[in-house]
Amino acid sequence: MFDDARSKRVIMLSHCLLNQNSISDGTADFPSQFAEIIALLMTHRIGMIQLPCPELLCLGLDRRDHNGAKRPVLEENTRIRELMGAQAHITLLRQKVEELVRHIQEYQQHGFEVLGVIGVNRSPSCGIDTTSRNGEETPGQGVFMEVLSETLAEHGIRLRMIGTKTSEKERSLEKIRQFIDRKSSRIGRMSRSTDEHGGIFDAGRNHSGRI
């Protein structure tokens, strides 16, 4: 089944990496998307799953303040994070994440490899390594990524999460390149090992799926 041209490899990306128009006012670094990340994933034939924009979903495009862009970025991010922590918003995010979990499970059950999640550091919602609190960039995940991580754990799903920054283009690209190279090397080693023992290895199947 699914023995057509598809690569059977997918990865999830924060919404704004594919659509900068959704980002909070004053923080877009590109006219439309982080094109180099998209090109890199396309080169490696990795399908892209665009995550919903949690802030657009919960707060709207103006993040409930027309003057948001006039504040320092970390101050505005802190305001947004505090709003995103409202219980009604957390409940909505959990609903969206449960939908994503069903997608992941479908891919894995049919032998596809879900490589991981690419987020955006410093973001109040989609930060992986860092987020914004108290007017500073601090270690920790954004609100949406916290909900995603918790829900994945509840379902027994482990995925590698990679933090990028649109303001740090080359460093972000290098992190993704290294991640893809490690995944490709692991698949190659598993393929050779299985071949040596006379078995059959399907490179598209998610043998580790859970990193």
Helical fraction equals 40-55%
Please report the distance between the alpha carbons of the first and last residues.
Answer: 25 Å
Shape, principal axes of CA atoms: globular
Q: Would you list the SSEs in sequence order as H and E? A: EHHEHHHEEEHEH
The counted number of beta strands is 6
Question: What does the secondary structure layout of this molecule look like, with pairings?
Answer:
Blueprint: E1 9-13, H1 15-18, H2 35-43, E2 47-50, H3 54-59, H4 73-84, H5 87-109, E3 113-120, E4 130-133, E5 136-139, H6 143-154, E6 160-164, H7 169-196
Parallel strand pairs: 1-2, 1-3, 3-6
Antiparallel strand pairs: 4-5
Helix pairs in contact: 5-6
Q: How would you explain this protein's 3D organization?
A:
Helix content is 45%, strand content 14%. It has 211 residues and is of the alpha/beta class. Strand 4 (130-133) and strand 5 (136-139) form a beta hairpin. It starts with 8 loop residues before the first strand and ends in a 15-residue tail after the last helix. Mean pLDDT is 90; it is low at 194-211.
Keywords:
single chain; 211 residues; alpha/beta; two-stranded antiparallel ribbon; globular
Outline of this structure?
The chain has 211 residues and is an alpha/beta fold. The chain contains seven helices and six strands; from the N terminus they run βααβαααβββαβα.
